[in-house]
Hints:
- It is a single chain.
- This protein has 464 residues and is an alpha/beta fold.
- It has 2 domains: 3-205, NAD(P)-binding Rossmann-like Domain (Rossmann fold, 3-Layer(aba) Sandwich), CATH 3.40.50; 249-464, NAD(P)-binding Rossmann-like Domain (Rossmann fold, 3-Layer(aba) Sandwich).
- It contains 17 helices and 14 strands.
- Strands 3-2-1-4-5-6-7-8 form an 8-stranded mixed β-sheet, with helices on both faces. Strands 11-10-9-12-13-14 form a 6-stranded parallel β-sheet, with helices on both faces.
- Helix 9 crosses helix 11.
- The longest helix is centred in the middle third of the chain and has 32 residues, at 215-246.
Amino acid sequence: MSEEKFTKRILCIGAGYVGGPTMAMIAAKCPKYKVTVVDINEDKINAWKSDELPIYEPGLLEVVKQARGRNLFFSTELEKNIKESEIIFVSVNTPTKTFGEGAGKSADLQYWEKCARDIRGSAESDKIIVEKSTLPVKTAIAMERILSENDKGLHFDIVSNPEFLAEGTAIRDLENPDRVLIGSKETESGLKARESIVEIFANWIPRDRLITSNLMSAELSKLVANSFLAQRISSINSISALCEKVDADVSEVAFAIGKDSRIGNRFLNASVGFGGSCFKKDILNLVYLCETFGLYEVAAYWESVVKMNDYQQNRFVQTINSALFNTVTNKRIALFGFAFKANTSDTRESPAFYVTKKLMEEKAHVVISDPKALKNAKMDLKGFNDLIEYEEDPYKAAHKSHAIAVLTEWDLYRELDYEKIYKEMEKPAFIFDGRNILDHQKLFEIGFNVYPIGKPHLIHFKEV
Length: 464
Ligand code: NAD
Ligand code: UDX
């Protein structure tokens, strides 16, 4: 299609886990729009142009291939692309701040603000700026102030369109979302900008799932959605600790309570703890916001969700240590999975990182296995690499090990030949199922000592 035939020119700044898949979906669904994704990281952009995408996400390559070169483009050229786009999504990272005021809680907005200044510097026409990144409430107001301080007489409308995709299911979530949220100022031009964004998603999503609100509600809803989801996991994880004390089974409890339609059955899988780049960061962001407004009780309430998660991760390591007769030193321990969840290569805030670090402190011999995340694992554990083994094949990882810890719920771990694995392990052999995905009774019958989460331990000798 020639340039003139495109009815909208959309730019996205930030080609990461959100920018890449989101724009690929828009481009695939809307051939009449030109969609360009830019990033400062040249290697990443080159990877987006190849068949070795920079992230692993089921179905993503097919969607990218549908549109790439037709109406989907990847580039490092910021200035030119800012000039020629009417709508600019900003999807850069907004990690937790590690320095200065708000360190450890508030969001680091330096990348976002830099984008606003770059847009202001290069723009030659009015534009709609869309917040795709997750941001503290009222960021839009600050950005509007920065953008409107221009001497070119340009007008910028800010729209908040937070992203709700989950990694591993991003394509499904983008193609068929529960809802898309679009917030804007309720002025004439704000409402017009809002409608332009609604129009994009209306190309494939039913109108009743395109919900609109004011700017602050949209920004806040994103933080609240993630906090509620994480809260459910911390709630069931807290109950898993009690289940282990009273011989209840957390899966049975979750099933029973989840049958109540007011509670619902999703996000009730007890685990070694939640990971990922979003939950902890967004809850802490909410906590900081509450503290800023003097709402200390509200802040403490939400912070406890993160504390419970820390407790759960720590509890998992303590269980390993005490089951292995209070010493893991020099013991070979195979970790099945390093990604923060299945079907992604992402390891950000993965519980596996915490577990590895703790086991290393105890001088264990850790062997990490994962079908997609070994490259990221090696980067995360740069400092320890001489002491850690990386082995994609789980059979080899488990060979001669004293224990296996399942940390990611990859399907492949359900289907392994555990009799063969057991035969090749040191005895007594232990398995710690941090995701409750294995057949515990069968493993016990094979000879393993089995430690699920929130269920009775199945052990062949008296617990020490
Ligand atoms: P990411 O780190 O994968 O990607 C961000 C990209 O922005 C990086 O490639 C980085 O190089 C690029 N970047 C930073 N500054 C830039 C600049 N000035 N110009 C051009 N490129 C720049 O992050 P992500 O996981 O895609 O998250 C992005 C945002 O979306 C965050 O605010 C996050 O909270 C939010 N979010 C993430 C998810 C998720 O599942 N990962 C889901 C919903 C929302
Ligand atoms: C999350 C939100 O789900 C998504 O809407 C938002 O846009 C970004 O943050 P993500 O972090 O990619 O998505 O994955 P998610 O499926 O939410 O899982 C987060 C963590 O919680 C993972 O470590 C997962 O294993 C864990 N989890 C999830 C549990 O431990 N138990 C559950 O029942 C569900």
